[in-house]
Design brief:
This protein has about 260 residues and is of the alpha/beta class. Helix content is about 45%, strand content about 15%. The radius of gyration is 19 Å and the shape is elongated.
Amino acid sequence: MPTETKKAILVVSFGTSYEETRKMTIDAIELSIAQAFPDYKIYRAWTSKMILAKLKKRDNIHINNVKEAMEEMKRDGITHVVIQPTHVINGIENDLMKEDALAFKEDFQSISFGAPLLTTEEDNREVIASIQQEFEHIPENQALVLMGHGTTHHANSIYAALDYTMKDMGHSNFFLGTVEAYPSMETLIKMLRSFQPEKIHLAPFMIVAGDHARNDMAGNDPDSWYSQFQDAGFDVETCIKGLGEYPGIRKVFIRHVKEAAS
């Protein structure tokens, strides 16, 4: 093993096949981390096999998965690795990422992991403050509805907790639901009917504004959230902006890297 210390940060994202949103989200997060940690070399890995395969086939672009990134750092003589996921929750993707990375623990002097976006109470409050900053133009008689991904993993409960915390922090017009779990569309419609907003602003609660944001949320398909809310009688406006574009969200990731590196 080399005696010289060579430190790296591996930023692990789910990935996206939309170049435009990648530049404004994943690239922006990596750049913010690189600027905050000039002594570290920055590496990238994506975890979605489907997206990696699509990019390879469509654009002939190869992006490392976690195993390939670990191999590359090993070849480059890196000794200390901090792995920072851009995942929203400690779900399935995060568990698998850790498993892949820890298979290399003999190859490095240290491997430490930064926490996903929503891990502690402090994270939740910072994320809500960042959303509030982003949407402070929304009057109290209108609603902000955020679309999270949702998962069968037990970590999914964080979404309902975050919705509750938003209201506890005085944002009674903020609502958070998920595409694939609870709180669901049915729950949201029920809650919004009792709130009776003059208008709904729909935005993704996902790091990148990719397929889910464009199709499941803002699409014209009858199943999209946009269409379902319109059918329920609401006036709806969509905002295609991933969480990775919010400076406050990038700050949370930087703090997580700091905590993992210390």
